[in-house]
């Protein structure tokens, strides 16, 4: 098969890839609103060419482009859009109410004391989230902000920027609903020869090089790499600057999974940091080119027709600010309502078109990737053989995401391993570029399909907040006589949450013996936590009932054998983005099985870099999940003190001010088995990859070039630009017996999910980074 090479003719389409992605509204919140959707040209807006109010200019631009350019996102010059936002005056009381309302949810942020006082090798400055909120609050009190968007930018930076945590995000309404910012170029970072430090180039120059092409030496008059690093320090959702650096550039993986041609151009959290009116690039040949920055409109449940000036701009895009009463109706756990709300964050930012494509019967190859041997229906996992001399023994498993149908994903991995063994492949490259996580137990299952005989070790813990404890105090006694099984039981929801002490395994895979044994609280580094715990993959309610299959190694999927033998035949390939469930899977592969890793790219400086740089927290809750748990708990208590605690978890107002995505909080720390004593969360542990490689121009065009370089370095004695992977003295000779003991197993009975994926139980098992 031939790699689908990228060429200049597809550039236009390619550069617009982020447009639909960034414009899908959080659909769960849209149901009752009349959206201003793009139409085929029948919109009847009256352009007002004489308008001078910048928000009116924006409105007219929106409608005139809707009617003239079908299917593409309206855009305008960034400077006028920004003027519109800054023309909106501060609405102080609702702003202060929001800051106060966020506190009960941020209390759950599990690593906050480490963020406040990080280990010496943590690359970013300390952040005290609560102190920062207090500063914004007092600035508001003292009328220090001259516009609504200014305090919203401070809040966004405090929550979504400074902590560099992909599981922690709040998207203020005025800042994030109408527009996102776009720079007029997509960039790449490549090494000219594969060994010299990478330089920055404009993507077009790589796709269609000419004699005159030159690399970028300055951006806005600042050294180009320094400029990019500055942006990363402000907006990256990764805990390591090398990963943040990589995400600013084009790669096939970023385009396929992050729906971005590099965050420098647009996307990620960078999209809401105002880039200024213009961007200028200075090239090594002395040429400087300056272009205006762009504001890209969002589609959403908003109607620009209602915008007549700055005040109506606020009314339209900050609707939540105008609600006064709590949305909590008496003990409302109506399941439709739960679903609608929980859905939204994960539906965003999938464009509708890509979702429908993913549901087609015949899965399509991934754009920019070769023809796969196996691919699942969501294009989350796919397998490839490298059809070139010298690589006949190598199989490549690409896991762009762990968010798929559990059953389909498991089947695809199993089918690919069987095909690879059958075809005599003895080496496996696992490409985890751009992987932001997904279903937690999919990470467990994939590990156990590769190493069925190694029991994963993934200790984790929660912050013992007063609201967390209140839920535990109600759920735990309720579940005294509950036994998980396949088939519905009334108490499935409360009893399969962390808040039932009988649920989960302890750190040595035994059962907790009491409420105190699990919930403590235990003091570590001056903060209060639960005991260490692990998921129980044998729990039939969590797994069999939901996924109609078992995690490999459990139930019907015992007795599997290794498809590729030992860790020396496998290598993990990263671009640093790996986060969330990807970090859980990676921990098992590295610490559990001893598999080596390769990290690509990074900042232009010598030395080894990390591979797993995304958030390493092991669970994220939308604030709505906390509210739903609290609502459920309220059904089972009359205790006034507990009721008072639980009522603090009403996120109605807080979420209404973040309609772009529901706010999310990292609620669970992963702790390496070797750090149980110290208690330092994995998020704050530096873990260098074994080998570093730079991207080359050929690799930008084709992922297959990256796989070949990785296989070379991992299995064939190839060099790394830093570090290296030693070859085993004697490789086990597999070739003699083609199937070498790998037993084929029946595929899991295909079923699909029994429970809706957004139900309370399912929600807790999905752990994905928010970009
Ligand atoms: C455009 O939309 C109008 C109103 O929905 C419809 O009547 C018309 O047929 C559409 N035209 C095209 C070309 O799809
Ligand atoms: C940006 O553009 C706006 C509107 O065109 C203008 O008022 C402002 O002065 C510009 N800012 C800079 C730094 O040039
Ligand atoms: C300098 O390099 C840039 C970027 O490749 C190119 O667009 C420009 O034409 C070059 N200028 C000259 C004078 O060769
Ligand atoms: C886990 O539970 C088992 C059985 O209750 C117990 O023997 C073991 O000591 C516990 N391990 C820890 C670390 O608490
Ligand atoms: C696994 O192997 C054991 C021993 O051969 C056997 O008793 C058991 O039934 C097997 N389990 C499964 C799920 O195949």
From TrEMBL:
<protein>
    <recommendedName>
        <fullName>CPAF-like PDZ domain-containing protein</fullName>
    </recommendedName>
</protein>
<feature type="region of interest" description="Disordered">
    <location>
        <begin position="21"/>
        <end position="51"/>
    </location>
</feature>
<dbReference type="InterPro" id="IPR029045">
    <property type="entry name" value="ClpP/crotonase-like_dom_sf"/>
</dbReference>
<feature type="signal peptide">
    <location>
        <begin position="1"/>
        <end position="23"/>
    </location>
</feature>
<dbReference type="InterPro" id="IPR052766">
    <property type="entry name" value="S41A_metabolite_peptidase"/>
</dbReference>
<dbReference type="InterPro" id="IPR056186">
    <property type="entry name" value="PDZ_CPAF-rel"/>
</dbReference>
<dbReference type="Pfam" id="PF23658">
    <property type="entry name" value="PDZ_CPAF_rel"/>
</dbReference>
<feature type="domain" description="CPAF-like PDZ">
    <location>
        <begin position="181"/>
        <end position="298"/>
    </location>
</feature>
<keyword id="KW-0732">Signal</keyword>
């Amino acid at each position: 098969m031939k790699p689908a090479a990228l060429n200049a003719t597809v550039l236009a389409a390619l550069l617009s890839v982020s447009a639909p992605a960034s414009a899908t509204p959080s659909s769960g919140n849209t149901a009752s609103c009349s959206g201003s959707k793009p139409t085929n040209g029948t919109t009847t807006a009256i352009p007002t060419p004489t308008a001078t109010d910048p928000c009116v200019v924006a409105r007219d631009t929106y409608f005139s482009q809707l009617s003239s350019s079908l299917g593409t996102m309206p855009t305008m010059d960034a400077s006028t859009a920004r003027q519109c936002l800054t023309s909106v005056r501060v609405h102080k009381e609702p702003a202060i109410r929001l800051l106060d309302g966020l506190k009960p949810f941020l209390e759950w942020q599990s690593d906050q004391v480490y963020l406040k006082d990080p280990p010496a090798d943590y690359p970013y400055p300390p952040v005290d989230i609560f102190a920062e909120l207090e500063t914004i609050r007092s600035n508001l009190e003292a009328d220090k902000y001259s516009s609504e968007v200014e305090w919203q930018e401070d809040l966004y930076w405090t929550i979504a920027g400074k902590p560099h945590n992909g599981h922690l995000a709040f998207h203020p309404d005025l800042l994030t609903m109408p527009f996102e910012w776009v720079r007029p170029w997509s960039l790449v970072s490549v090494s000219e020869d594969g060994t010299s430090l990478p330089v920055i180039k404009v993507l077009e120059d790589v796709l269609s090089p000419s004699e005159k092409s030159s690399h970028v030496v300055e951006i806005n008059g600042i050294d180009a790499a320094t400029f990019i690093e500055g942006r990363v320090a402000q907006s990256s959702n990764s805990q390591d600057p090398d990963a943040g650096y990589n995400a600013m550039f084009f790669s096939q993986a970023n385009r396929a999974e992050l729906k971005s041609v590099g965050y420098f151009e647009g996307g990620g959290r960078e999209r809401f940091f105002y880039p200024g009116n213009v961007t200028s690039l200075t090239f090594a040949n002395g040429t400087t080119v300056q272009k205006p920055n762009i504001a890209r409109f969002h589609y959403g449940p908003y109607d620009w027709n209602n915008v007549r000036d700055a005040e109506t701009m606020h009314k339209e895009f900050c609707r939540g600010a105008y609600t006064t009463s709590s949305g909590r109706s008496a003990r409302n756990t109506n399941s439709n309502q739960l679903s609608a709300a929980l859905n939204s964050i994960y539906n965003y930012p999938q464009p509708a078109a890509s979702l429908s494509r993913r549901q087609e019967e015949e899965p399509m190859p991934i754009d920019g990737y070769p023809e796969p041997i196996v691919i699942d229906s969501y294009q989350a996992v796919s397998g490839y053989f490298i059809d070139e001399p010298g690589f006949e023994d190598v199989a490549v498993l690409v896991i762009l995401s762990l968010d798929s149908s559990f059953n389909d994903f498991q089947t695809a991995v199993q089918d690919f391993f069987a095909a690879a063994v059958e075809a005599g492949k003895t080496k496996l490259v696992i490409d985890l570029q751009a992987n932001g996580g997904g279903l937690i137990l999919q990470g467990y299952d994939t590990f156990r399909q590769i190493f069925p005989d190694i029991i994963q070790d993934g200790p984790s813990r929660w912050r013992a907040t007063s609201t967390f404890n209140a839920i535990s105090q109600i759920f735990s006694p309720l579940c005294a006589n509950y036994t998980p099984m396949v088939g519905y039981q009334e108490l499935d929801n409360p009893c399969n949450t962390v808040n039932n002490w009988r649920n989960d395994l302890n750190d040595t895979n035994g059962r907790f013996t009491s409420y105190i044994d699990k919930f403590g609280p235990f003091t570590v580094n001056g903060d209060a936590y639960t005991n260490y715990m692990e998921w129980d993959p044998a729990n039939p309610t969590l797994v069999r009932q939901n996924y109609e299959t078992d995690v490999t190694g459990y139930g019907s999927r015992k007795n599997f054998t290794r498809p590729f033998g030992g860790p020396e035949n496998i290598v993990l390939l990263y671009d640093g983005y790996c986060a969330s469930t990807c970090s859980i899977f990676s921990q098992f592969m590295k610490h559990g099985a001893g598999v080596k890793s390769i990290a690509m790219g990074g900042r232009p400086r010598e030395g080894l870099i990390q591979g797993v740089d995304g958030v390493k927290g092991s669970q994220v809750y939308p604030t709505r999940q906390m509210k739903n748990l609290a609502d459920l708990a309220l059904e089972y208590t009359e205790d006034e003190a507990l009721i008072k605690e639980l009522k603090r978890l009403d996120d109605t107002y807080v979420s209404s001010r973040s309609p772009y995505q529901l706010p999310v909080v990292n609620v669970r720390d992963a702790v390496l088995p070797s750090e149980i004593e110290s208690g330092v969360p994995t998020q704050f542990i530096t873990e260098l990859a074994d080998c570093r490689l730079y991207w080359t121009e050929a690799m930008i065009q084709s992922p297959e070039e990256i796989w070949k370089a990785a296989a070379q370095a991992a299995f064939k004695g190839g060099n790394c630009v830093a570090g290296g992977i030693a070859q085993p003295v004697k490789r086990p000779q597999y070739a003699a017996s083609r199937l070498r003991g790998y037993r084929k197993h029946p595929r899991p009975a295909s079923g699909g999910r029994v429970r809706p994926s957004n139900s309370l139980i399912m929600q807790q098992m999905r752990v994905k980074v928010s970009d």
